[in-house]
Amino acid sequence: MELYKRYIKVVAVYGKTGDVQPLYFYWDDGKRYRIDRILSRERRASQVGGCGIRYVCMIQGSQRSLFLEQEKNRWFIESYQP
Hints:
0% of the residues lie in helices and 70% in strands. By secondary structure, the chain is mostly beta strands.
């Protein structure tokens, strides 16, 4: 299976100091997924192109990489094509 960049809608909390905490994201079909835990946060390049702040997250028992492209102010997840 091959990874690709999938842009998604994210609900996040922005703190007083400018830190960002993603809480949920929405898949294309409108289904909402809660981000159970953030394991790490760092500026990083994606395997599928682009860079930004990478959040390594636990979502329903699976570890996923969620990126915030700061210059474009949008979110994407590294997703697998079937």
